[in-house]
Amino acid sequence: MYKNWDEFESKRNEIANEGIEGIKKMLLKGDTLSQQLHFDETEEYIKKIVLAQFDISKMLINGKYNPGTVAYREDNNHDKKHYIEDRDKIIQRIYSDSVLQFSENEMDSILGNSLGIENEEEYERWNQIGYSAVTRDHTIQSLAEEETIRYNYENENNPVKKFFQSFKYKKLFKNTEIEDKFSKKIRELLQKGFEITNGNPRRAEDYAVSNIQKGISEYPNLIQASSIAEMAIDSLKHQKIEPINIVESCKESRRVEKENENIKSQDFRQHSVTLGGNDADSRELVIETMDFKEIPKAMQELQENYEELYNNSVSSDEYAKGLAKIYSDFIYIQPYEDGNKRTATCLLNKMFLSKGLLPPVVSLVNDDRFIEAVLKAKEQDYSDLEDLILSEYKKVNSVENTDNIKTKEKTEEKSDADSIRE
User: Which domain holds residue 88?
Assistant: First the structure.
């Protein structure tokens, strides 16, 4: 069994309290060499558990590879090859880097909030600015006219022309009205636009608009990531060493995302659905689901299979391999209308923790190995998934931290037997 639960729970609580901003801070490279070389085993493990649940493909598309940004077009980063390389590099690091840290640009690519949106009200305001023709004309164009005057004056080398331009320029600075955060940000983007387009007003305005739209697409992505992170961290709470109730454990995990309005319901679905990704770049599984009327019975059978595994496993390896089947069967039951893969992974975490074992780093949104193994398990071939979960389990449960696991009853029976012999 894992030994340092007090230390683990303390670190888990610390990360849970800081939320997504705390996770971003931990993932950022430090400024000093000592910060960059800092290694906290528990912290690194939790970071990987959380990051593995983020849809890296979607985050990159909404961030660095957002097709609406001028910067994206000018840098030729829309090339699919670059996108795939970036995506695969990040995913590989989740599994291979002992210290998982990213540069500021890398963090902005996946967890960016370039507009600094703080709440739903600000998000709606930016939507009006970025997509409403009337609001955009009034807000962005008026600021663009001012920035045109500024840029022309500050970059004019002809003294005569500069003299005549100075009247408009000075009039611009007579305006003492305090700008709100929206105007300040738009002005900042316009100034950057003028800089990179060599003073082209139309292209500078396009630059501002496209980056506003990029920022608008980042915010829901960040909110969902925050909810997913909260759900993943919540699933790492130290469990009692006893079997869990699968349905109740799932409800508890889904409660977190329900409160954040990231899933529709904690109850079983009431209609048939097919879930998965249709995008060519998507790594999501496309799943044909069980008839909804069969779900209660299937979940009861899953509970029985889990309890049998829990009570009869004689080693941690056997238990880990057995959980592969429980995990896969849950995915193909698809008990809920949405969020089933996240729920399945949280359930897997809790089933490991119920034996006093650290759960492995598993991802059904990023890791092709797991995606292919789960697809194979649909045909009742669990071998690849068993091997994968066992392999990843062993990486996080070192020999000195892991004992053979017995049920509480078997341990008590052995103690009684020893007493009789004595």
Answer: 5-116+220-228
